[in-house]
Amino acid sequence: MNERWETVIGLEIHAQLSTRSKIFSGAATLYGAPPNASACAVDLGLPGVLPVINAETVRMAVSFGLSIGARIASVSVFERKNYFYPDLPKGYQISQYELPIVTDGSVEIRGTGCAPRRIHIVRAHLEEDAGKSLHEDFHGMSGIDLNRAGTPLLEIVSAPDLRSAQEAVEYARNVHELVRYLEICDGNMQEGSLRCDANVSIRPTGATELGVRTETKNVNSFRFLERAIEFEIARQIEILESGGKIVQETRLYDPDRDETRPMRQKEEANDYRYFPDPDLLPVVLDTAYIERLRAALPELPNAKRKRFAQVYDLADSDTAFLTISRELADYFETAVAAAGGHAKLVANWIMTELTGAMNRDGLVLTDVRVGPAALGRLVARIADGTISGKIAKQVFERIWREGGEPDAIIGADGLRQLTDTGAIEALVDAVIARNPDQIAQFRAGKQKVIGFLVGQVLKSSGGKANPKTVNDLLRAKLADG
Ligand code: ADP
Ligand code: MG
Q1: Could you read off the pLDDT of 100-117 as tens digits, one per residue?
Q2: Which of 4, 141, 150, 379 has fewest C-beta within 10 Å?
Q3: How confident is the model at residue 32 (pLDDT cuts 50, 70, 90)?
Q4: String of b and e for 230-257 (b: at least 16 CB within 10 Å)?
Q5: How far apart are CA 18 and CA 35, in angstroms?
Q6: Within 13 Å and on the Cβ side, how many CA atoms surround 309?
Q7: What does the DSSP 8-state code read for residue 387?
Q8: Which of 8, 12, 199, 215 to mutate to test ligand 1, by most ligand atoms within 8 A of the CB atom?
């Protein structure tokens, strides 16, 4: 990074709210339906229709506001943002402008290599999405699909507080995690359920005024967001260092060429001729409603991480992993309860075996056969010495493929760990007899050979001998003889 310049970034994140119907109509919010199969007269902007606010969208916006410690407006207003575009048949988008429903909140991000930082969220407002132009092969014409028109969006606008591409990504990840915890957005970025507009400017290090910014629109992956910002920073530095000027404009990121390109020069805000939509009443919220929603908030990611660290005595890296989603955190807690404790061991099994198998087979948590209670009981059998860790992996694989109960499988397959010293001793004697060279090496002072010998005994026991017992017996015998 060039030390003469400081980067300034503000993100606008559009989160698609996961309601069943649209924000101002009763049409379903279906993803992937045939074109225009889910667009009613209101979404088409036909004359004579009236929008009606979907109360769920208000509940979701307020819940989000409460989760970031924001001010919830007792009165907020929908306005018409006027512009023409083929996928916007009304000629205006309904959005909130002067009086948004949420203002002045913040999220704490765990910086990359730096101390945690609070990022200010200036506002979050409700609005409707537009339709989509399809430039496919319609006999040389374009088609308009209005299924997406009227899909509810929460636009979350950060202050220009972010100072690097990495920090911007960290912030976006936090917002993504939060909306998923709140279950107000499915967070599916490939399907466009969460999209980021990155406002980027640079200024001489130490300057207090903001530089001229560009806005890169609709970035739909964290990796692209990082690349788009990095590209934009380098491009702006190059222009300013060669004496040029930055033009305020809207740009698009092209992942194939890994660059941003100009889309249009930014219109002045007043070109939109905003005015309150006369078809919609102001949204008026009373304190009782807001407090009811506050009481219904789930435990949020940061609070959960703190609690996990305290209650389960886990490292930060473990709690960060286990709280990635509410489902995973719940899975962990159910498993620990079934195991009767052993939180660290349960965490390890989730982070290695379970996650490894999910990645290998491309499954998500809700699809796996090894439920949290089964995993917990499996861990309990390792912890109480019934089976070795190695056998436990076999049992896990079996449940992973076929389902079933750990105890039943352990019993039926005779997988119990050999703890009977007599039986293990016989195996140890056999291995000593079979490996005279290694025994000689060990006696000559080559301690490492013991590992090989332990391995041989474990192997001959089919993985069932207790490694510690084997180790103790071997050392005792070699010392004696
Ligand atoms: P507009 O009205 O053009 O949308 P806003 O003031 O609402 O502009 O800002 C939109 C976003 O751009 C916000 O996230 C804000 O933090 C960010 N932003 C504003 N000015 C700058 C700047 N000079 N550099 C980087 N980001 C900026
Ligand atoms: Mg804006």
Answers
A1: 999 999 999 976 556 689
A2: 141
A3: confident
A4: bbbbebbbeebeeeeebeeebbebeeee
A5: 20
A6: 12
A7: S
A8: 199
213 contacts: CB under 8 Å, gap ≥ 6: 8, 10, 160, 199, 200, 201, 246, 248
In which element (H, E) is residue 133 found? strand 132-138
213 lines ligand 1 (CB under 6 A): yes
Angle at 379 (CA atoms; ends 377, 381), nearest 5 degrees = 75
**Beta-bridge partners for 219:** 196
Q: What pLDDT score does 266 carry?
A: 56
> Residue 265's pLDDT is what?
66
Long-range contact set of residues 296-302: C-beta below 8 Å, sequence gap at least 24: 296/63, 297/63, 297/66, 297/67, 297/182, 298/181, 298/182, 298/183, 298/326, 300/67, 300/178, 300/181, 301/174, 301/177, 301/178, 301/181, 302/108
Ligand 2 centre to CA of 3 (Å) is: 29
88 CA to middle of ligand 2, Å? 18
How much is the pTM?
Answer: 0.85
Query: 153 pairs with which residues across the strands?
Result: 16, 127
Whether 159 lines ligand 1, by a CB cut-off of 6 Å, is yes
Both tokens of 181, joined, read: 């915890």
Residue 65 Cα to ligand 2 middle (Å): 18
Give the tokens for residue 134.
């399809």
* Ligand nearest, relative to CA of residue 159: 1
- Bridge partners, 195 (sequence order): 14
Q: Is there a contact between 96 and 78 (Cβ–Cβ < 8 Å)?
A: yes
Whether residue 251 is predicted with pLDDT greater than 80 in this model: the reply is yes
Residue the block writes with tokens 């490492």:
448
Residue 9 CA, ligand 1 centroid: distance in Å: 8
Q: Whole-angstrom Cα distance, residue 397 to residue 354? A: 10
